[in-house]
Amino acid sequence: MGRWATLERRIERWIMKVYGCFAIACAALLLTAQSQSQSKASKYACSEPHPAQLCTAANTCGSGSAACSVDVKRTADGASSTPGIPGAKGNALFCVKVGTTVTWKSTEKDNGFVVDVGPASPFDPPGAIIGGSDRAVSVVAKRTGCFNYSAGACRSGATYGMCDTANAKFIVIE
Q: What is the pLDDT of residues 14-38, one digit of tens each?
């Protein structure tokens, strides 16, 4: 009887380990699928026939009467631009309305940045946006559309390798 009880306990432990591994694998698979679907929406936003449909209250920054603040910084593994939206992630797709003032800034000490939307910039004034932790730059969204931009960030006094660039997208809506 003692042998069977011991064998039964071993089998029960083995089954619990298998169930535990299965549960962990399922959770990892779900998280991976979710992050891939979020990154695909951001990655291909400007390829969509109607990219403005991707804009929601949750990813729209600022308004005609309130500025949108975007924090550009150098991270441990790259650069990041994060809109001032609760829960926003770095380099995530965000939306602004026409007439919104977008303030590009860096909250990291001794950081400088360059944001380049390219020749089709929707902002006034157009051109590269150059600023830093001691100089926020404000521009006004004037034209609707989906825009790719690069945001480069460097630490002041940094040696080679302390600068990096990230690419992201934003949509200007009516």
A: 565 545 444 343 333 333 333 333 4
Do the beta carbons of residue 153 and residue 79 sit within 8 Å? yes
Q: Give the pLDDT band of residue 138 (cuts 50, 70, 90).
A: very high
Residues in the chain, total: 174
pTM: 0.73
Structure tokens at 88: 């926003």
Enumerate the domain spans of the chain.
2-43, 49-173
Reading the block at residue 171, the tokens are 């949509």
CA torsion angle 112 117 122 123 (round to 10): 20
Closest among 42, 142, 50 to 94, alpha carbons compared: 42
Q: Is 49-173 CATH 1.10.287?
A: no
